[in-house]
Amino acid sequence: MPETVFEVDVDASPEEQPDPIVNRWHPDVPAAASVEPGDKFRVETLDWTGGQVSNDDSANDIRDMELDPNHHLSGPIEVEGAEPGDLLVVDILDLGPFPDLEWGFTGIFDQENGGGFLTDKFPNARKAIWEFDGVYTHSRHVPDVHFAGLSHPGILGTSPSHELLEEWNERERALIERGPNDKTAVNHETGEDEPPLALPPEPNDVLLGDMDDEAVEEAAEKAARTIPPRENAGNCDIKNLSRGSRVYLPVFVEGGKIVTGDLHFSQGDGEITFCGAIEMPGWLDLQVDVIKNGMEKFGVDHAIFKPGNVEPQFSEFITFEGYSVTEDGEQHYKNANIGMRRACLDAIDYLSNFGYTKEQAYIILSTAPVESRLAGVVDLPNTCVTVSVPQAVFDFDVDPDNLENAGGVDRGTAALPD
Amino acid sequence: MPETVFEVDVDASPEEQPDPIVNRWHPDVPAAASVEPGDKFRVETLDWTGGQVSNDDSANDIRDMELDPNHHLSGPIEVEGAEPGDLLVVDILDLGPFPDLEWGFTGIFDQENGGGFLTDKFPNARKAIWEFDGVYTHSRHVPDVHFAGLSHPGILGTSPSHELLEEWNERERALIERGPNDKTAVNHETGEDEPPLALPPEPNDVLLGDMDDEAVEEAAEKAARTIPPRENAGNCDIKNLSRGSRVYLPVFVEGGKIVTGDLHFSQGDGEITFCGAIEMPGWLDLQVDVIKNGMEKFGVDHAIFKPGNVEPQFSEFITFEGYSVTEDGEQHYKNANIGMRRACLDAIDYLSNFGYTKEQAYIILSTAPVESRLAGVVDLPNTCVTVSVPQAVFDFDVDPDNLENAGGVDRGTAALPD
Amino acid sequence: MPETVFEVDVDASPEEQPDPIVNRWHPDVPAAASVEPGDKFRVETLDWTGGQVSNDDSANDIRDMELDPNHHLSGPIEVEGAEPGDLLVVDILDLGPFPDLEWGFTGIFDQENGGGFLTDKFPNARKAIWEFDGVYTHSRHVPDVHFAGLSHPGILGTSPSHELLEEWNERERALIERGPNDKTAVNHETGEDEPPLALPPEPNDVLLGDMDDEAVEEAAEKAARTIPPRENAGNCDIKNLSRGSRVYLPVFVEGGKIVTGDLHFSQGDGEITFCGAIEMPGWLDLQVDVIKNGMEKFGVDHAIFKPGNVEPQFSEFITFEGYSVTEDGEQHYKNANIGMRRACLDAIDYLSNFGYTKEQAYIILSTAPVESRLAGVVDLPNTCVTVSVPQAVFDFDVDPDNLENAGGVDRGTAALPD
Amino acid sequence: MPETVFEVDVDASPEEQPDPIVNRWHPDVPAAASVEPGDKFRVETLDWTGGQVSNDDSANDIRDMELDPNHHLSGPIEVEGAEPGDLLVVDILDLGPFPDLEWGFTGIFDQENGGGFLTDKFPNARKAIWEFDGVYTHSRHVPDVHFAGLSHPGILGTSPSHELLEEWNERERALIERGPNDKTAVNHETGEDEPPLALPPEPNDVLLGDMDDEAVEEAAEKAARTIPPRENAGNCDIKNLSRGSRVYLPVFVEGGKIVTGDLHFSQGDGEITFCGAIEMPGWLDLQVDVIKNGMEKFGVDHAIFKPGNVEPQFSEFITFEGYSVTEDGEQHYKNANIGMRRACLDAIDYLSNFGYTKEQAYIILSTAPVESRLAGVVDLPNTCVTVSVPQAVFDFDVDPDNLENAGGVDRGTAALPD
C-alpha cells in the first residue's frame, strides 16, 4: 500500500480534518504534501458533500444540503520539478471506499436547491443508498438491479495559475452578465425560475487548506468554484477515468498542485441527477511522472487520458435516441442537451414498464454504466444523442422482446426515501 | 439472399432508376414495395448524393455538389397490417457495398456549400477515397490507417403522418423565424455569415417515388427535408445501428412505409465532417415484424434499438475532453457542441504530431469508430464531452507514451485532393 | 469484389467442377491459379462433403455419408516468388455463403461411420439445418437459439514438400502400428470397437486437381488425408480464424500452394460433433503477401495468426469444468480430452433443463461460439478444462439464478431429424 | 468490509497461525468458522507455499521448496443448513493482496523438485518477483511488460464426504498402479525419469486445522492431496474465476465446509510453469447462499460458475497453434498437452525475438492473461490447441508486422534469479 500523503477522518467535520480540506481552485493554496516523479502515494478523500448525507431512508439531508461548501477535496499535492507547460502523467492505480464504509448515495436534488438535469420533471429531493458488495453494488431503494462499479474520481485536476483563474472568473462572469442563450434544456417549462447560469466565486464557506486566515479572506473573493470542469480537468465526471487509467494533466503552477476527490463508485454518462453518481468517501492510489514541456510536445491544451482496460463489459444494450426538439414540440438548434433529455425521458418511460417509479428509473440512468453518445452533430437543426442501457444490470429480463412478461411486479414498493 | 424489393442502378441518374428514388418525407408517397410481417427482403440504395462523387483525386465534386436533391433514398416499403401506434421491429440482417463498387468517400464540405462541424477551421472542400478490403478499409488519402467498418444505414425511418409532417414544418419554421439562440458552436468567429438554422421544405429537385407529377407539385411544398433525425428515426446517423441490430420504429401511417439509405461503411460518433462517414451505395437485408399497439406498450415515442454484438472491438483508446468554452475563451452555457468541438480540435492537434495534415486528422475522427460521449451534463456552466480514438486503427504506435518516436514521418504527402 | 481465381458449381458433382477439386495434401498438384504478392482474390469452395447433405429433415445423408473423398477443397493457389522458408501473409478479408444458398448443416455422425467427440453417448446420426439471417443464424431443429456467426475456413494451408509429406506418413503410420496409448476419451465404454487411430493415405476417391491420371495413381498412395491439422495449418478448425484475421503460413514448396475450404458459418471451440460446425459452401476473399525467409525471422515452425476484431462479443457466460476422470470414475493422467468430455456432458445435462434433447444440446455446444479453455495443465493427475456457454445465444433466460422459471417448455418437439 | 472469519499472520509459520491451516482434503476437519446463508465474510490466506518464498533475486527458495506441506489453505467454513446434494452459491465479491505485501512471485520449479509443463526444456529453478501497482503488475525480472491482474483463488472447494474421499484415493491409486498410458507430453525425451503419475496421501507435514492430534494421525493416511482439481472444484486454477464471479459448488458433507486459498494476482490459461501464476497471500470476500437439492435441480455433478464482467479486455492478440506431434516428430493420438506444448514453444521462440530469454518468455505465458483454447478435438490424430498472447501486455510494439523494428534490445539483462 503506498504511503498516505493526505488523510481524512470521516467522523470529523470538514473543518477538523487531519489534513486540511480544499473546496475552491486557487494557485496559492499551500501544498499539503510533496511527491517526486515516480512516486506512488495514497490520497484519502471525504465524499463531495463533506459528510452531509446519512445511510438512512429519508431524503431530507439531500433536500437541505448546504451547497456552498462543496466540493470537499484533498490536496494540493505538489510534484517536485513540475513547471508550467509540463504535463503530469498521473496513473490511477486503484481506488475504493474505506473498509468500514462500504456504502454510497445518490441524490435527486430539489429544484430549489441544486436541481439536476431533469429537474422540471423531478423537482423533489430523493435519495438512494447503495451497498457495496466487493466489485458490485445494489440498493435497497432500487430493487433487482446490481452491477459492477466503474469507480473513478469525479474530480482530478491541477491548480490554475493566477492568470488562468482570472480568465475563468472573467468568462463566467461574462456569461452571467450577458444572460442566457438557450437554457431550455434545463427549465423549458417555466421560463422564469432559472437556475444560475454559472457560479461566481462565493466567499462563504471557503476552505483553502493551510492558507492563513487573512490570505483566505482575500483569496476567497477570487477562488473558483469546483463545479465545472475546465482546462485543469477538475470536475470532469468522466466515468471511464477509472482504475488503471493514465491521465496527462497540464501544469499551470510550480509543482502542478494536484487536487482530487468526489469519488464515485459508479456513474452513468452524464451523471444526470446531479448528485448523480454513487457518491462515497474513500481512497485513491496514484503514481505521478512529469513530461517536461509536454503541452507543446503533445500539442494539446486540455487534459487527455487513456482509460484502463478493466471496465465492466456488456454485450446487450437497449438504446434510446433523442434530438433537439422538446417533448412539447419546440424546435431548438443543435441542442444536444435536449437530445439527451428526450432519450433519458424515453428510457425512464421504458423502465417504468417493469414496476419502477420514474424516480428510480432516473437514478438507474444516473448511476449504472450507461453509455451516452453524441451520435450525430451535423444534421441541422437536430443533434442526435443516444443513451444505451446495459441489460445485464437488471436481475430480470429487461429485453424489449420479452416485455410481455414484465407485468405485475411492483418494484416501487421499496420506494426512494422522501 | 432475400428477394430484392427495391433496386437501383448506380450507372443511371437518380431520375432514371429501376425503382423510383425518394428524397423527402411525405405520407402520400406510394409504396414501392409491400412486405408481410416475418419477411426478409433486400433493399438497394444509391449513395446519399445520388452518384455525384467520383473515385478520383479532386475535391471539386464535393465543392460543387448540388445539395437540394439529397438524400437519395429507397422506399417506401409498406408492411402489411401495420397501423399507426404500432411498432415495426426491423432487423438489420446484413448490409454492404455492391460487389463491383468496393469504395466509398468522405468529404469536407466547403463553408459556402454545406459546411460541417468545424467549418470555420476547415472552410475548403476536401475529399478522401476509401477502398474496402472485405471487412476492412483504407485510403490512399490517409495513409497508415486501416480499420474494420462498423457499417450502418445513416437513414432508416418510417413515414410521417400528415399531422406529424405539419408539426415538423411548424416547429422548424418557428426556429427559423425566432432566430438563433446559441449558434456559437458552428460559426462563433464571424457572427455574421450564419449557416441556415433549419432547412424548410425546398420544392426544387424533389423526388417522391411514384407519386404523379401533379401530386408532387403540391406535396413538394410540404415534404420535409431528410437532413435531421426526427420522431421517425430518419437520419439518425447512429454508428452502432449496424449489422445484427434490431430497431423498433413507431408507425405513423398505414403500412409504416419504411424509407432507408445513406449507407455508411464506417463513421465516428458525430459524423463531424458532415459528409463525414465513409459514404457508399449498396444493399441492406432487412426483416420486419409488427408489435400491435407497440408505442403504448413500450411507453416510448422515439425509435429505440438494440445494437448487434459484432461491432469492432478496441481495448486501447486515447481520450480527449472538451467543455463549453470556445478556444477564444468565450464561456457558453452547457453547450455540448462546444465541448465536442474542443475535444475534436485537441484530437486533431494530437494526431498532427504523426505527420498528418489537420484535414486528414479531421477525416480520421469523422470516419473511424471514434466514441464521443456526454460525460457530464450537470456541472454548470460546462458540459463535458469526451472523444476517444481507438489506437488500433493506426498501423503505427500512436500511444502518447511513445510519442517521442513519432517524428519525421510526413503522412501528408498523400494529401487530400483539392 | 476481388477476381475469382477458383470457381465451384454447387449443382455439379465434385468431379465436374469448373475448377478441379483437391481432397488430399500433395506437393505436385498443379496450381489452379497464380497470384502475385499484394493481390486480392476470391476463392469459391464446396462444402467439405462436396454436396452430400440436403436441406431436409432426415439424417440419412449424414448416416450414409461417404467419408473417403473428404474434404473437398479449392486450390492450390500459387503465390509468385514464394520459396521454402518464407512465410505467406494471408489476410482473410471476408467470407460467406453463396447468395442463394443461405443455409448450412451440422451432423452428429454415426458411431460406425465417422463418430464424434462423444460418440459413445451419441451413437446415432443426427442432423440440424441452420438458416442464415445475414450475420445471424437459427435452426428449425434447435428452437429458441440464434447467434451471430464467427465464420471461418476450417481448412487453410500451404502444400507440404515431398520430405514433409513423407514425415507425416511415417509418423502417423508409426502411431497406427504401435497402437493406442490412451484412447479412453473417445471410446472408453466398449474397449473393442475402436475408431481409427489415424487415417493413412487412402487411394480411393482421390481428387488431385489437374494432375494427370497416371500421376494421380502414384501420388494417391502417398497423398495425405486432410483430416488432421499439421505444420501447414490445414484443418486447424480454429473458430477465431475469422473475418479480418491475418495468418502467417510457412512455405514448403515453390509458390506456397494455398489450399482452402471447409467453410464454417459458426463453430464452438472443439467442433465436438465432428461435422460439428455449421458447414456450408461459399466464398472467401483473400489477400497475400510474402515475408522472405520469414520462418527463421519469426522463429516459429507452425502457422501463427492474428484474429480479427469483429468477433461476436458476449459478456455473460455459464462455465462448466471437467478434469481427467471419466464419469465412471476412472482416473487418467493429465488427459485434457476427458476434461473436455466431462465439461461438455455437464453442459449438456444443464441445457436439457430447458427442454432440449441431449442431441440438441450437443449440437448447440458444437456450433455456438462456445469457449473451451485449458485452464490448468500442471495439477497432476488432472488437467482442468472449462467450457463456457454464452448466455445471449438463447432467446430465453438461461441463467442458473432463474432456473426455476425454466420448466415446462418442450423444445425437443422440433427434434433432430433421424 | 465484511467480518474476517479466518485470519492469517504472514510473519508466523504455517503451524502458528491465528486460525489453523489446512493442507489436505478430509471431511472431518472441524469447521474453523460458521456462516449463515446470505452472509458476507472475509477469508485471509497465506500464499500456497506458506511463506517459503522471499522477495529477492535468488531462485534458491524455489529450488529447495518443501512440497509435501502444500497447499496452505484457509477453512473449512461451514454454511448453516447446507446438506449433501445442495449447491452452495459462492460469490467472489473481491480479493486482493494484503496492503503491505503488494508483491507476488512466479517460479519455474526444478525438474527434480516439482517440475512444470515444459520441465524438460526448463529443468532449472527460476523466479520472478512481481510488484503490484494497484490493478496492474510489473516485474523487475521481466522488463517492459505490465498488465492488469485477473486475480482469483487458485483453490476454492467444498469438503469431500468419506465416500468421495475413498473414491478419490482408489482411482488415483489405480492410476499409479496400472502405470502410464501416454505421458509423453510431460517427459517425452527421457522415458525414464518419470514424474509421479499422481500424489497419494502423504502423511508427512499434514495440517488439518483444529483436528486433535490423534485424529490427525489417522486421517493423514487418507486425506487427499490438494494438487488436482476434483468434484469439489478445489485446485481448478481457472483464471476467469475472478472478482465478481459466482460459483455453484456441490455439497458433500453437512455445512459444505468451504476451503480456499492459493491466491493468484494473475495467471495465463494453463498456469504452465506450475508455480505459474503470480502467487500471493491475501484476502477474499465471499458471500454464500444455498440451493436446496441443487445438484439434482441443475443436473450437474461438477462445480459450475459465471465469470464476472470486469476481466481485463484485449483486442489484439498473437495466436500460436500446436497439435499432437512432438517437436521430434512423434505422432500422438489426440493429445492436447502436446498441442499446448508446441504452441507454447512457438510462442516462447517468438517472444525471444524481442530480447527476452526463453525463461522470461515461459514466465510471461504463465502469468499474463493468455488464452489457451481447445480449438479442435475431433480431427484425429491431432488435437489443435491455440495459445493467444495479448499484445497490450507489452510496453513496446510486439506485432509481427513490425518485427523488423524489434532488434537489438536485450531484455534478458535483468535476468531471472538463479
TrEMBL record, chains A, B, C, D:
Bias-annotated ranges (Basic and acidic residues): 178-190
Segments of skewed composition (Acidic residues): 1-18
Region span, Disordered: 1-26, 178-200
GO MF annotation: an example: hydrolase activity, acting on carbon-nitrogen (but not peptide) bonds, in linear amides
Gene3D superfamilies according to UniProt: Acetamidase/Formamidase-like domains
Pfam families documented for this protein: FmdA_AmdA
Name under which the protein is recorded: Formamidase
Species of provenance: Halogranum amylolyticum
Lineage: Archaea, Methanobacteriati, Methanobacteriota, Stenosarchaea group, Halobacteria
